[in-house]
Amino acid sequence: MTAPRAPRPTVVLVYQRTSLRWVFDSALRAGIDIVLVPRPDESVSPDRLPPAVVDLLPLDVEGDPVKALALLRERYESTPFDGITTLYDPAVPFVADVAEALGLPGLGSADARAAQDKRIMRRRLAEAGLNVPGFIVLDDPGAWDGDSGLTFPVVVKPANGFSSLGVTKADSAEQLGAVIESVWEVCRTKLSQATGLIVEEYLDGPELAVESFADRGEVTVLSIGYKGEPTGPYFEEGVYRAPAPLPQDVRDAVVREVAAAHSALGVTDGPAHTELRLRGGVRPYLLELGARVGGSGVSHYIAEHVTGADLAADALRVAAGLAPVGVNDSVSVGESVGVGGSASGSPARLARATGAAANYIVPCGGSGRITAIHGLDELAEDPRVDHIVQMLHPGDVVRPYPDFTGYPAFVLSHHTSTRDAEEFHRSLESRIRIDYAPTGAAQ
Ligand code: ADP
């Protein structure tokens, strides 16, 4: 027997960084109480809880998921909650397991794994007839037999990676063995569960990020943003500006491809953050679809300023079993034999863009011990800048990429046009500067 439910809907939110505070503001607007499972690397004071947080529940979700599930079950039986969710990609399968075990709304464990494990995702997308590059999977370090059969260049990545961790391009068959070895090393040292690798053909062209929301199978694309045109060999994140200026047929092909991916991966309810590359500038190929609000909440900020949607609030509503509010103004993007999409592109809706928004990820620009970060304080005065989320500070040590993938700061800004966002980002390249002392020199 479980105890009576709390009067307000309550959602357990796993590993949300409190510095991305607007996610908690969304909970407040939605009238949803949050039980926060704090990130292990963040100390949250019970006396100064973020908005909407009614309780803290420390759990070691990655280190001991069995115990974490048992503690959640105990909590549920004594003080029931209505749902559980996360914006932290590696925790998506755990959250789905908990929801399934407790009979709460959720994706289901199998679909959550498909959206998180790049091997399953690639297979499902290929089976559904979506645009997929040639790929092979390597389930263990002994599995590489020296012949990929793929067209070079290729990209090697951990099957369960995130934040571009270890993702490396190999230009030739001669390089591939060494690259595979180094990505296995990243798996061993940086990922809590190293499950395998995927090697796939390199997709050139602009990179896009898409924020979308599904409600009982109907997908609405909230925004399509531009993410630069990274060429490797490593793929640090850089800029994100939305809406991306795209011809209508290409834009529609992207919408249909994302809707088809929702359906192939079983993401019929709730948010998704999808990354794609536009091969030849026209043909969308999915890199991955994450069944969550992206970028720890950056995606919410982008969607809010491009369309007025409250993405995080709707994600929490769906987690609690409530109906999402959605967007007021959207157009239907029907089936078509458009230029770029795959054969299976699905109809969907596209929210009307009414503004522009951007995220500038401050590049490390070097390595060593940080002695000073210049330019961030002055930026706070710029009326276009809404949030500066600083993750690295003087005293922190930055190791050379690809060994380290933490980012110094995010600068989130809103604009009247994507062109204004682009000019603003160009100015940040010289306005923000990080000074380093070589490690060991400045203790
Ligand atoms: P993660 O989940 O670790 O972020 P992704 O699959 O999203 O891994 O890859 C990270 C980045 O690496 C992408 O955003 C993209 O820039 C680049 N990348 C990954 N796979 C490919 C590919 N097949 N072709 C071109 N670039 C790729």
What does the model show?
- The chain has about 450 residues and is α+β, with helices and mostly antiparallel strands.
- Among the domains are: about 10-115, Rossmann fold, CATH 3.40.50.20; about 135-200, Dna Ligase, domain 1 (2-Layer Sandwich); about 360-435, ATP-grasp fold, B domain (D-amino Acid Aminotransferase, Chain A, domain 1).
- It has eleven helices and 21 strands.
- The strands form five sheets. Strands 13-12-9-10-15-14 form a six-stranded mixed sheet, with helices on both faces. The protein has a four-stranded parallel sheet with strand order 3-2-1-4.
- Helix 2 crosses helix 3.
- The termini are far apart.
CATH class term of the domain at 10-114: Alpha Beta
Bound small-molecule species:
adenosine-5'-diphosphate
Total number of helices: 11
Estimated share of beta-strand residues:
25-35%
Question: Can you count the beta strands?
Answer: 21
Q: Give the averaged pLDDT, no decimals.
A: 92
Shape: globular
Q: Which architecture of the domain at 10-114 does the CATH hierarchy give at level 2?
A: 3-Layer(aba) Sandwich
Strand order in space, largest sheet: 13-12-9-10-15-14
What distance lies between the first and last C-alpha atoms, to the nearest angstrom? Answer: 57 Å
Write a brief caption for the model:
The protein is built from eleven helices and 21 strands.
Provide the fold topology:
Blueprint: E1 10-14, H1 22-30, E2 33-37, E3 53-56, H2 65-78, E4 83-86, H3 92-102, H4 109-116, H5 118-127, E5 135-138, E6 154-158, E7 168-170, H6 173-190, E8 197-201, E9 207-215, E10 218-226, E11 239-242, H7 248-265, E12 270-279, E13 283-290, H8 298-307, H9 311-319, E14 330-333, E15 348-351, E16 356-361, E17 368-374, H10 376-379, E18 385-390, E19 397-398, E20 409-415, H11 418-431, E21 433-437
Helix pairs in contact: 1-9, 2-3, 3-4, 4-5
The protein binds adenosine-5'-diphosphate.
Adenosine-5'-diphosphate (ADP) is lined by residues 133, 155, 157, 161-165, 167, 200, 202-203, 207, 230, 235, 275, 277, 287-288.
